[in-house]
Give the backbone structure.
Amino acid sequence: MKIGNIQFGDRPLFLAPMEDVTDIGFRLLCKRFGASMVYTEFVSAEALVRSVQATIKKLAISDVERPVGIQIYGRDVASMVEAAKIVEQAGPDLIDINFGCPVKKVAGKGAGAGMLQNIPLMLEITKAVVDAVKVPVTVKTRLGWSNDNLIITDLAEQLQDCGIQALTIHGRTRAQMYTGQADWTLIGEVKRNPRIHIPIIGNGDITTPEQARQAFERYGVDAVMIGRATFGHPWLFKEFRDYLDGKDPDPTMDFNWKLDVLEEQLRINVERIDEYRGILHTRRHLAASPIFKGIPNFRQTRIAMLRAAKMEELTAILNDIRQQYANGTLGAGPQTQGEEATPVIATD
């Protein structure tokens, strides 16, 4: 499978672009553990054009994480073209256009999945961006605006005609947001269309390696993109890759090993972003990491992790968890009621 001149090999696994999730520390770890392609957090075209520094910082990429894509979103041709030119200067391997984000602050303003209500403008933006840059341009979108508007089979052909070099389809409508189940049947229908010759990347509800294999075998997609299941779980790509390649699970990936990975993510983020935002980003992953799920009486520790404001403070909490694990006392103590809810993080 290839996009432009980028070769990915057989059954590649992609990390989805996610706001406040796919920072550089997380991307580097996902790449190390087998992600075939990673993406930055999605960036606002309007903010790039206005030179908003917080947005410009999101364009920072490392050669170690290549191939890496930068995803942009916007609602008018001029700003999207200018933003694409700015992004191209940052040196990504491809530029992805976000026509899939369903959250109100994006779709409600006509960008992201909101563009599914204005297909002529979507196609105009796509064609203009393709013509404006030399790097490959791809698109990520959804099945349609609602179940009464499942347009992806025709839309895929129209986007292909605009010159994109791959299409990622999230198997939900905008109306669904993140609820219900992703519908892969329409993704498979797009892939089986004899008029489609660009790679089709499937996305939505892939949480196990068995589901990833089914996506390749039943629906025929060229790649699988994984989003929310990666939160606090960058080694997921190694687990999936080993399964797809017929390898046994790696016994060295135990609790301590995984905790070391999360602590390394913290260090990378603090070094490459700054202490405040690096901790903020890492706390999101700690709150969602599967290694802490099911531990009894863990609520107060989880709260402490989410409240930590200094690297030394958060590192001390992780070291205490490590020591409790070694002593066999992790989760011991007074019974508490319930667990902290995992924070909802916007993806497209």
